[in-house]
Amino acid sequence: MAVGSVLVTGGTGYIGSFTTLALLEAGYEVVIIDNLFNSSEEVISRIELITGKRPKYYTCDVTDGPKLDSIFDKHPEIDSVIHFAALKAVGESGEKPLDYYHVNVYGSLTLLKSMQKHNVTNIVFSSSATVYGDATRFPNMIPIPEDCPLGPTNPYGSTKFTVEMMITDHINAERANAKKAGKSGEQFNAGLLRYFNPAGSHPSGIMGEDPQGVPYNLLPLLAQVAVGKREKLLVFGDDYSSKDGTAIRDYIHILDLSAGHVLALDYLRSKHPGVRAWNLGTGKGSTVYEMIAAFSKAVGRDLPYEVAPRRAGDVLNLTANAARAEKELGWTPKHTLEEACADLWRWTEGNPQGYRQSPPEEYVSK
Ligand code: NAD
Ligand code: WQD
Q1: Do the Cβ atoms of 267 and 325 come closer than 8 Å?
Q2: Can 156 be counted among the known catalytic residues?
Q3: Is the pTM of this model over 0.95?
Q4: What sign does the CA torsion over 256, 262, 267, 273 have?
């Protein structure tokens, strides 16, 4: 029998697809919804190739309340949601903030209302280290703990912050209302997962990040340089006060990140904590130059780069204090940066067109 049944919004995207994989491997049943804005349905077949299980899938926009209602009606077994569906390009969020508020905030509101109607009471939310903003303004808070004051510095970050507040208010109110009615209310729970920088792919080489437009993040851009889609990497600033002048981030293997979601969901369902935030990061910072060196090593040759001005909104150091996730969830990252780079290269080299090409023969004939 299944451990439980989960609706995964944005489940065909990068982190959502790996979390679906981890949920299926842990014995959960999964129903995915996605509008395929930044992903492809092909990933579902890849998940099936790896796990032998096929998640249910519906094309659905998270802002479409009636459609969400009809999916919850069809799947009364669902008791939890992991909510990934969102727009995530920081730069674009400064140009089109209302689009970001519409999908990320109104979409989350619509989802919470539909969950409420259908008595679905646990939610794990994809938040982001970006909610901390420039944590270096609190020098005693690097690496960053969850109780560091929040202060997003861009509209994308503001949407994540807003949704964290909305979920917190909602869950607290549901619990208080239940208590007033003489019930425990302990079934209402939320995990706010603040991810640092996701990295890597599946070691099989058949699942990975497949951004549909121009990528924004360091590793997908480096991967494009490695396959010749891009002439060189621009290093955004070498005048930071780090050991080599480039900015420091905490890169976490996608397999560890997705495992954290399953543990968080297990915790919500068994320990009933109410609302809890957890950082998911390794606690180890790497500079941009260290990342170029690590990925170049995986590729087997030096990758060209050029120093450019700092990118607006970037900060010196975003590194997690992940002690709370370790203590409460029993979560520790198991995969190294070297593995993340090797896995990313295997995926990129084998699938230069991402999911728009067939998986390697040995997988199809299995
Ligand atoms: P992604 O773009 O690969 O996945 C998001 C998925 O949501 C995509 O499949 C997209 O098609 C879908 N989607 C977008 N708008 C939708 C809508 N209106 N209705 C239904 N589906 C919609 O991104 P990802 O990297 O997997 O990120 C997943 C979540 O994690 C997002 O909420 C993102 O903000 C958050 N996050 C990402 C990172 C990162 O660096 N990748 C870091 C921190 C937090
Ligand atoms: C990493 C480092 C860049 C590209 C963003 C969001 C954050 C989260 C993860 C969603 C930085 C440098 C990058 C390039 C470079 N996403 N860089 N040249 O900015 O840490 O975080 O993605 O929630 O919210 O802000 O990640 O991968 O863009 O950058 O030098 O072409 O690489 O300056 O120091 P970032 P990133």
Answers
A1: no
A2: yes
A3: yes
A4: positive
